[in-house]
Design a protein that fits this description.
The structure is a single chain. This protein is of the alpha/beta class. The chain has a five-stranded parallel β-sheet with strand order 2-1-3-4-5, with helices on both faces. Helix 1 links the parallel strand 1 and strand 2. Helix 7 crosses helix 8.
Length: about 170
């Protein structure tokens, strides 16, 4: 898989993770230092795996996961205290200190998950966006609207797109 993004605020962390991945045969596609760089890199890449730290100069890992949506799977690496602040349901966490083999097995598992996960079409993404916009107009933030759609999807056992359609039909 060549859709790995390594993203840490500092060069030292990026180099350590990149080297560990490369030694295990998992060369990253790109190395980033800000959330905005990750968002740009993940666009059009398909389902990426982002290995990142707890925060960036421009956003937190939690905010990054919200912004990426289904475009990527996010693995946050950090101390337990930092990981406790990551509330996004889709974030995977790896507590430091960890071994090279723990990192490699975690990334390999997430890469397999990314390959198998169904991807939304552009039309389906537009439907989800419209449903979010409707919820935002009713007083929710973008993050709250996204969480609401995810929660409804999980509780009903339906795809997120089906929940978005239902919300749009009831407007």
């Amino acid at each position: 898989m060549n859709r790995l993004i390594v993203a840490f605020e500092g060069d030292k962390q990026c180099d350590l993770i990149r080297e560990a991945l490369e030694s295990g045969g998992l060369a990253p596609y790109v190395v980033c230092h800000t959330g905005a760089e990750v968002l740009r890199s993940a666009q059009g890449m398909g389902r990426a795996v982002v290995i990142c730290g707890f925060k960036f100069p421009d956003m937190s890992a939690d905010e990054l996961a919200y912004d990426l949506g289904s475009a990527a799977i996010v693995l946050v690496v950090g101390k337990n205290v930092q990981l406790d602040f990551c509330e996004h349901e889709g974030i995977f966490k790896l507590a430091a200190p960890f071994s090279r083999s723990e990192l490699l097995s975690s990334v390999s598992m997430l890469a397999q998950l990314a390959e198998k996960a169904p991807r939304r079409t552009a039309d389906e993404e537009a439907l989800v966006g419209e449903a979010k916009a409707l919820l935002i107009r009713s007083g929710m933030s973008e993050a709250e609207a996204h969480r609401y759609l995810q929660r409804c999807s999980m509780e009903s056992g339906e795809r997120l797109v089906s929940v978005a359609k239902r919300i749009l039909q009831t407007q």
